[in-house]
Amino acid sequence: MIDVHVQYFAVLRERAGLSQETVATAAATAAELYEELATRHPFNLPRSMLRVAINDEFADWSRPLGAGDRIVFIPPVAGG
Amino acid sequence: MRAFTFSSVPLDPERHRAELADPGAGGYASFEGWVRDHNEGRRVERLEYEAFEALAVKEGERIVADAMARFGVSRAACVHRVGSLDIGDLAVWVGVSSAHRGEAFAACRYIIDEVKHRVPIWKKEHYTDGDSGWVNCERCAAAAHDHDHDHDHAHAPAGSGSAFEHDYSRQVALPEVGAAGQAKLAAASVLVVGAGGLGVPVLQYLVAAGVGRIGILDGDHIEASNLHRQPLYGIADVGRAKAEVAAARLAMLNRDAQVDAIAAHATRDNIDELVAGYDLVVECTDNFRAKFLVNDAVVRAGKPAVFASVHQYEGQLQLYRPQPDWPCLRCLWPTAPRDGLVGNCAEAGVLGPVPATLGAMQAMQVLQLILGLHAGASSALVMVDLLTLETRRVSARRDPDCSHVLGASTDAPDAAPVELAFTTLTAAVESGFELVDIREAWERGFDPPHASIPLHLPLSDLVNGRVQFPAQGRYLVICAHGVRSLSLTEHLRSLGQSEVYSLRGGLAALRC
What ipTM does the predicted assembly reach? Predict the structure, then answer.
């Protein structure tokens, strides 16, 4: 298990009801982490519609996670 | 009575007051401006008012109409004297009748303040020492004359062809701008796609800064629900074409800018030609369809663009520059998201300063691009949270598989029409369509006339897989404005379902 810091934006923040949390996870990748979090929060967006940033850089969903990583799930936004 | 008039004979406030009588009015407020015997330490004996009446009456009428719309008062009028007046004479009268006193006071105050500020009226004071001078002509002061004003007035009134030079001194003073930078702004042309919450500040700041030519592409009409975040527009503008109202307002802000009002939506058919006509593009719409249309067009044309979007209290900003290593919108979002699946302003709600902040940031990026201030130029996606005031930059890289990098055409050929227009639902049924209402249940509750479409598959249920769209049949998909139905229809088409269409413009476009 590692601790990672997760931030939510826009519609994900609404659905999670919080903007950030520290999560102890066994997930090996960002993709696994999202699927895990989606069981705890009522996310209504499939992963294919999101991007993930790890330590302030857009990353592949398959990138391995490290302890202390800052993970941000970013939904596309269209309002104007 | 007429809303704004000039009088060369003494005013009779009792008569004007009677003309504002209204059985629905619970109050009346008026203001009287009098000729006083001193100004700036000098004894005044009498004075003369002169006005450029054709222009002044028009501007005065506009002010009174604005006040009535803004404060919801029942009647309002203003009469201004011209000619020679003595001490104690009534120079200007404003009257307002209204259901309640608060609005009457406010409208009265508004009218006199705006008249003093905006209406071209000149005042010549005659002093007890025999001297005289033109004073308080704010329009002349604004014209930055460098000689003093203690002389008989010979300037042409504003609007009659006199040169009004816009004063850019406060931005020219920046060492990075200077006269050369101002010349670059004057030579630049910018296409602003969308004149809403983001577009309004973009337009205001670019026009004010002296950008030479600005195109406003927006096919929408102003709705009452726009006003809280688009304060370029007023109550009286509701229902009017946004691009045209915006162009008219901006023309009052700065005559240096040529503003092209293009009252149309961005489409595959018009976007390339429009983008070709400008140096750079600012994307300010509220839908993914337009954002990706603009993205693909600027990539094809090799022009820079500034994108922004907001969601509730957050915004995203992205700059595109036509460089080989620069990511485009599709590099970040390889699958263009479908409208209606992620909230827009109508569905998610928004506070005005959120798009205003992001729009101001877009305007800043545009000025930087034109002026060559590249210090901050970055391909990072900038995320701003207006609740916490936190800003986050997420570095983005070009996606080597992105269609724009591979040079593949991003302009998919048009397949069979996806949208169909009907004036009534009955006509659609008679044409052999089964109607599918994909609005949410609560929306149907607000719209009794259209609450009875029998096949109701809320989009949220379709997205979450709680219900399935029927595979067989000929369907017309319906929502409130035709945006979500179009997304869903395109999605179904991409899955191979060919006999499905979207009602163009949604229920809002029906005749009844």
Answer: 0.74
Q: Does domain B4-142 match CATH 3.90.1170.40?
A: yes
Q: Which residues of B touch A51 (CB under 8 A)?
A: 332-333
Domain that includes residue A25, residue range: 2-74
Quote the tokens at residue A32: 């696994």
Nearest to B311 among A10, A44, A53 (CB): A10
B468 touches chain A (CB under 8 A): no
In a domain, A15, yes or no: yes
* pLDDT average, residue stretch A49-54: 89
Q: How many domains does chain A have?
A: 1
In a domain, A29, yes or no: yes
How much is the pLDDT for B416? 58
Q: Using N-to-C axis directions, what is the helix angle for B242-253 and B199-209, rounded to 10°?
A: 30
Q: What is the CATH number of domain B170-406?
A: 3.40.50.720
Q: Tell me whether residues A76 and B393 touch, CB distance under 8 A.
A: no
Q: Are the beta carbons of B397 and A80 separated by less than 8 Å? A: no
Kindly report the pTM of this predicted structure: 0.58
Q: What pLDDT score was predicted for residue B475?
A: 92
Q: Residue B353: pLDDT above 90? A: yes
Residues of A in contact with B291 (CB under 8 A): 78
- Nearest CB neighbour to B288, from listed A44, A45, A78: A78
* Residue A25, in any domain of the structure: yes
Residue B133 tokens, joined: 């001078």
DSSP of B233-259: S-GGGTTSBHHHHHHHHHHHH-TTSEE
Confidence of residue B340 (pLDDT cuts 50, 70, 90): low
**What is the C-alpha to C-alpha distance for residues B162 and B122, in angstroms, rounded to an integer?**
15
Q: Which of A10, A49, A53 is nearest residue B314 as measured by Cβ atoms? A: A10
Measured between beta carbons, the chain A residues lying within 8 angstroms of B314 are 9-10, 13, 77
**pLDDT exceeds cutoff 50 at B410:** no
Name which residue leads in pLDDT, B95 or B53. Answer: B95
B31, two tokens: 């203001």
Report the CATH number at residue A40: 3.10.20.30
Under DSSP, the state recorded for A29 is: B
Domain over B419-509 is classified CATH 3.40.250.10? yes
- Which residue would you say has higher pLDDT here, B1 or A6? A6
Is A28 domain-assigned? Answer: yes
Instruction: For chain B, say whether A17 makes contact (Cβ under 8 Å).
Output: no
CA distance to A56, B201, B377, per residue, from B390 (Å)? 14, 21, 19
